[in-house]
Specification:
binds heme C
Length: about 140
């Protein structure tokens, strides 16, 4: 029994640790990319939601402070509403309101995802033409 425990415990710790190490990028790929692509769309008519750079740019315009932007994103993905939305109204008209992602990730994971968006997309001047009119 003792030997079995000695053998099992490290395995348990390793799998627990592995479950924790997903990065914001990995989480975004898993949970958001099916709707929000991270590359420049070749054919905008195929989009089913605004691309990552578009949504993030609008969030940053409305919430310039990182802390506020993260709070907004974490809240919006769980409780989306027309009143809260910062993207242009045309976006909601075209794509419909985003379905709530509540329960699909932990709070901690949503914070990681929000950080990933904030740190990698929607910066002023970043790939300007790819941003234009995309959301
Ligand atoms: C089933 C498709 C779908 C999935 C999955 C999805 N979204 Fe969205 N999302 C949308 C659509 C459509 C919009 C545009 C309409 C709106 O703003 O509600 C949107 C808008 C947004 C916005 C802009 C909100 C605003 O103010 O208008 C953010 C931020 C966002 N999504 C983040 C995420 C993140 C992060 C994930 C992954 C956890 C995610 N979305 C998963 C469809 C999706």
């Amino acid at each position: 029994m003792k030997t079995l425990m000695l053998f099992l415990l490290p395995t348990l710790f390793i799998s627990l640790a592995n479950a924790e190490v997903k990065s914001g990028a990995e989480l975004f790929t898993e949970k958001c990319v099916s709707c929000h692509i991270t590359t420049r769309p070749d054919d905008r008519s195929k989009l089913i939601a605004p691309p990552a750079m578009g949504i993030t740019r609008h969030v940053k315009m409305e919430y310039p402070k990182k802390e506020d932007a993260l709070k907004f994103i974490v809240d919006y993905i769980q409780n989306p509403s027309k009143e809260k939305a910062v993207c242009i109204p045309r976006s909601i008209k075209r794509f419909g309101l985003m379905p709530s992602q509540k329960g699909l990730a932990t709070d901690e994971e949503f914070i990681k995802i929000a950080n990933y968006l904030y740190d990698n997309f929607g910066n002023r001047g970043q790939r300007r033409n790819s941003n234009q009119g995309m959301n």
